[in-house]
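Dear Dr. L.,

I hope this message finds you well. Following up on our conversation about the binding site, I have prepared a predicted three-dimensional model of the protein together with alpha-D-ribofuranose. For your records, I am including the exact sequence and ligand specification that went into the calculation, followed by the structure tokens. Please feel free to forward this to your student if that is useful.
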Amino acid sequence: EDVSVVVVGSCMTDLVSQAPRLPKAGETIHGHRFFIGFGGKGANQCIQAARLGAKTAMVCKVGRDVFGNDYIQNFKNNGISTAYAEQTENAATGAASIIVNDTGENAIVIVAGANMLLGQEELQRALTAIVNAKVLVCQLEINPDTSLQALRMARENHVKTIFNPAPAIVDLCSDFFKASDVFCCNESEAELLTGMSVTSVEDASQVGLELLNKGCGSVIVTLGPQGCVVCQPTNTAPKHIPTTAVTAADTTGAGDSFTGALAFYMAHYPTMPLEEMARRANLVAAVSVQTVGTQTSFPFQKDLPTELF
Ligand code: RIB
Ligand code: NA
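The resulting structure of the complex is given below.
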């Protein structure tokens, strides 16, 4: 009832190896650390919004297995409603094999498993929460039809939508753009979606305008250490929002920290200019890259400067 941010999206168990570099095809290399963590872009975004103070609910599917049981408990530990976090016998909890190199870059393979069984029926069960939320967030680690349907349900009920097209697909249905109040992607996703190359702030501005023309409300292209670019129909030019320089230990999930923070600001500061929300979300994500892990590195409101609230 008083849930402000609803995420319809993925849960993955992250199996993370830290190694000096990413291996080549056919190669075996020694890593120096292994850990298991809670991941999945949907859940990561929900966790970040919750840690900043949003009342959140997660609409998702995990397996009826150890990883799935642990995941449900993880949501409870983070104060996230699990009323629509369902378990299935028919597939295993999603898993992500992640390698992080010494400069904090990563390579990831996901096996979505149970995430792909989230569909129309589950959305219907979550209907009341979705239509009464302030903000709905979706990504592309579940069946894309489910994401699109959730975005439409929200839109029809005047709930603000954030769509993070990650991981990106080349032939993304054009309806996704029309269903997105804020379309939020990183540089490589923007490249895949438009065929344009993005290597600078200028490129990001160009690609942002191209995406804006596809019918979204606004576009944010995130640029890692360079911050992000915000494109809005009301502004004549895209706006570059720089961020503070930090030493990256692990950039995994930085985009999720950004998107989750954006959802929090949109839900709790609805009149704040989008550029200011993006500036603050940049700073939240910058904290997350400075420690290893995904959700373990996402800051709580109490850890952040009061100016961000
Ligand atoms: O965005 C980071 C996430 O991508 C990881 O947590 C992993 O689960 C993959 O889904
Ligand atoms: Na991190």
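In brief: The pocket of sodium ion (ligand 2) is lined by residues 250, 252-253, 288-289, 291, 293, 297 (CB under 6 Å).

With kind regards,
A. P.
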